[in-house]
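How a chain folds remains the central question behind the approach discussed here. For one protein, we set the task of working out the structure tokens from the amino acid sequence alone. The sequence in question and its structure tokens are set out directly beneath this paragraph.

_____
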Amino acid sequence: MSDSAVLVTRKDEGGICTISLNRPDALNALSLGVFEELEAHAKMLVQQTDEVGCVILRGEGRSFSSGNDIKSLQAGDKDPHLHYRTDVINLLEGLPQPVIASVRGHCYTGALELALIADLLVASDTAKFCDTHAGWGMVPMWGMTARLPHRIGVKRAKELMYTGRVLSGDEAVEFGLANVCVSDASLETATLEMAQRIVEQSWHSLREGKALIDAASRMTYEEGLAWERANSKGTTPDLEARLASFGKRS
């Protein structure tokens, strides 16, 4: 690991796992060490479907993340291989549990690529979403050119990538990048409430539904219908228990 401090923390409570980027003094800039710790957490979460029903991805302090750590690059921080960080982001995107990105402050470039792996996004009214690749003379390598158009449409993705325009939290909702924008003071509460609603559902259904949606999103409409028909289990192991408790729910 490249850094001695704990760069990514984890907290588990009530079936919800909160993963926090923990470099607030550096605006949670994405160093190699951050990616190494994210990879370790992701590999654990893939195996913990019985313990974790929902994952929250957030940043400590006043920003989600300012993006790639330019200082570490200047200092010669070397990845294990060219596409290491892309592979970690792909691993996070493939988590079986629903993932919520909780974003305040900066969410720039590499941080935006990281946030795009989340199934849902709650933005604070202090959030600032921006792609600065072109401003730095860089070209996306972590999935931006696929995920951003997929999320908000090709024309809007090109606008953000070509101009370096900064989106506010409200604008992110308008663009379809975020699900909701809340006050900065209520960000944690709103994110946790969304996560709690998720873990009240069948975790089996959530995992199967996520897998089906993610697969179908890469297909044509007709292919997606056929994929669901061929691959949906229809029921889950907790169906009978949930049916039995139906009349007892308040």
Notes: The longest helix spans residues 32-46. The CA atoms of residues 216 and 225 lie 8 Å apart. The two ends are 49 Å apart (CA to CA). Residues 203-245 form one domain.
